[in-house]
Known about the structure:
Layout: H1 4-30, E1 47-49, H2 51-54, E2 72-77, H3 88-104, E3 114-116, E4 121-124, E5 142-147, H4 158-175, E6 182-184, H5 185-188, H6 196-205
Parallel strand pairs: 1-4, 2-5, 2-6, 3-5
Antiparallel strand pairs: 3-4
Amino acid sequence: MRTRRQFMLQGLGALAVAAVGARRxxxxxxxxxxxxxxxxxxxxxxDLVRRAEWDDQPAKTWLLREAGGYNRLTVHHLGQWARVExxxxxxxxxxxxxxxxxxxxxxxxxxxxxVIDHAGRVWEGRSLAYEGAHVSGANEGxxxxxxxxxxxxxxxxxxxxxxxDALTARLREIFMIKRYRVYGHRDLNATACPGRNLxxxxxxxxx
Length: 207
Ligand SMILES: [Zn+2]
């Protein structure tokens, strides 16, 4: 025959199991299946260069954090490339360099989710299944979009702005990101990024 204490312990055990189950169920409900985001949803707003077209090294996923959803978007510039480069091979080389630099810093993969070049191409960066590595202390739920160029020294070309506008609008629509939650990197960290000439456009994008 079980004692009163044994019944209590049994009850507590059942509660603990129920709590774990609830946490699992809650996580499953909250977490969106971002690995399944179909970039085909960007067709028509972006000339997309898929990751497999420019990089054959798999991301070190054990260094990445799974994304739980996105509620903000941050715009960056490269900051080192004050020229207009539209040649696909040259841009590919530059994007690979950015990725290699981020890997060397231990990011496990390129930190941005998308890169926009001067021809208006959009290069697929880090998978949307993972949080980016582009804003110190504020990567959670934060989509990272980088434009090639140095916009303290040059102005973004119309092709970049057109694609930035279209990409931002589509991503806001997909993830239901509020307009005021579109940032320039300088809004979140002490940095000049994305350069004053691009930042003025970011301000227009969110107002
Ligand atoms: Zn930045």
